[in-house]
Amino acid sequence: MKMNFKSVRNKLGNGKVYCDPSFQRRVSWTKKDMNSFLSAATKGWARQPITLACVESCLDYAELQQDEPSIRYFRDLKERNYKYVSIDGQNRTNFIIDLINNDVQVSGRFFGQSDNPNLEGEYVDVKSSYLSKGNNCIFNKHRNVYEKIIHTQLHVNLYSQVSREELADIFRNINSGNPLNPHGYRQSLATPVADWVRKISDDNREMLKKIIVEEERKNMLDDEFIAKICMILMKKYSTREGQLVERHWGLAKTDIDSYYSLGLGYSNFSDPGCPYYVSEKVRIEKIIKIVNSLIMNQSIFTKLVPKRFVFACAHLAEYVHDNDLYIANYKDCAAKLNKIENDLYQESETKYTKDRQALLNKGEDPKHLKKTNYYYRQTQLPHQRDKRLERQKTLLEQIRKEQSDMGIRQLRKEENMAA
After folding, report:
1. pLDDT digit string (tens) for 190-201?
2. Which of 68, 142, 342, 354 has the smallest number of Cβ neighbours within 10 A?
3. Which residues contact 148 (CB under 8 A, 6 or more apart)?
4. pTM of the prediction?
5. Phi-psi region of 124 (alpha: psi -120 to 50; beta: other; left: phi over 0)
6. DSSP 3-state assignment of 52?
7. What is the per-residue pLDDT across 100-128, written as a single tens digit (0 to 9) for each?
8. Among 38, 2, 46, which Cα is nearest to 142's?
9. H/E element holding 124?
């Protein structure tokens, strides 16, 4: 179907559309983007449709199909008075609503209606102006452009019989010509891990700014980093038969994909048969709070915090939580952890050089001496499960020796019960 700009504001404004983060890129429009879109729209060049799903119709369909995850999803939206779910076109929709409501100014070369019946229209240069607010608004100074704008038609695709999982399929299909980065794809999946990782990332936004550069955050690499931390920390899983199994992941793309795919078909950690345990979820959230305290209180790194240090913090935080310990002073503990890390790094690098030289002195070929068996190299390989576990083991051995100096203390019984 088609809607003109005014209809978009009337039908989709006032909080009627739910912008599910699962289906939104992290790129907000700049003034240039807004002006370019409006210029193209007035010329009839805005071909990309706004894509929505009707909440009430999809809920009816889910109930007919007895699709419990979809029923919960759409029923929740209906109870919150949403009419539609935005699958694609959030920036366009928000801009049009703001434009008609006079909440944004535009400027540029726009195509307006012409008084000459022999001409389709004419170009008009518009300086920064609201649509219909103020003496110099477009309505007052360029009535032909105003009429063209409010009557500009856009294509709107409205889905009425799709499941929550199919919303993700539609989103990925729309973006197939403008590929999502791998984590944008994962975060659109109907799996409880996607929403959970997004929430942890949101709750730790300030910490992540110290670890991930802004450009990478736009591409959801901060969410991906949190997903990796969760994969490292989550050890216990449930099989379809309800048996507890322990698993340690690598952190390659295929591993992260598999971690997300485990939960397909479940909407919550508490769903019967869900492979992720609620207890592990709660445990990891507490451990990440400790990581956050270490990163936010450290004074070692004034710019970006190296990821290898963050992984070291995660190993320390897991040790502290799982052994009913606490950290007396996060700033001092982070400094001592960094010293342990640097000492282990330098000692292992020196040992590798000596071991290599010893082989050369014997006339033996040192090429069989693997760097990956040494701590300094293992810190660079968190994606390799076995090497990460070896690094963790070495680090924790040293932490246990120095935990008193690091200000790591045992929780008293009553504190442990409260925690």
Report:
1. 899 999 999 999
2. 354
3. 42, 110, 111, 112, 113, 121
4. 0.78
5. beta
6. strand
7. 999 999 988 887 766 555 545 678 888 88
8. 38
9. strand 122-129
